[in-house]
Amino acid sequence: MTKSAPRNREKTHNKIRMAIVRIEQGKPKIVTPQRKMSVAAVAEEAGVSRTLIMNQYTDLLERIRGGANKHIQKQRDDKHEELKKERAKNRELRDTLADVMRKYQVLVSKNATLELENHRLTGIVENENVTLFRGKKH
């Protein structure tokens, strides 16, 4: 091995590491920002082969696989937060519905009472044996 071999290895290591960082930050130069963290994506971004990363740079391979897991965890956490928000909205709407139903039941009861009273008074007015007393006009 020549002196330049370790230097080239270090250069390649840095290229791969920087590719990983760019993909993690969502600012890759070559691959699309929506692309998930993978050996293929990092290899393409760094301009090296996948086998080189898998055979020569196992430390970075672990970081890539960990980054992929972080991406999946982030998606899961985001979905979980969204689900919690929707459940809170659902709970609030159920409470509102229960309140409206209670008010509705009160109004139905009052309406039934008023209908009975109206029917009773109508019966009294229509009865021939009933004389209406009109109050004095002031």
Roughly how much helix do the residues carry, as a percent range?
Answer: over 70%
Shape: rod-shaped
Low-confidence stretches: none
**Strand segment count:** 0
Instruction: Write down the overall mean pLDDT.
Output: 87
Which class do the helix and strand fractions yield?
mainly alpha
Number of helices: 4
Number of domains: 1
Q: What would you report as the Rg, rounded to the nearest angstrom? A: 39 Å
- The quaternary state of the protein chains shown equals single chain
Largest sheet: none
Beta-strand portion reads: under 5%
Order of helices and strands: HHHH
Distance between the termini: 122 Å
Q: Mind explaining what this structure looks like?
A:
The protein is mainly alpha-helical and 138 residues long. The chain has one domain. The protein is 76% helix and 0% strand. It has 4 helices and no strands. Helix 1 runs parallel beside helix 4. It is rod-shaped and about 125 Å long. The N and C termini lie far apart (122 Å).
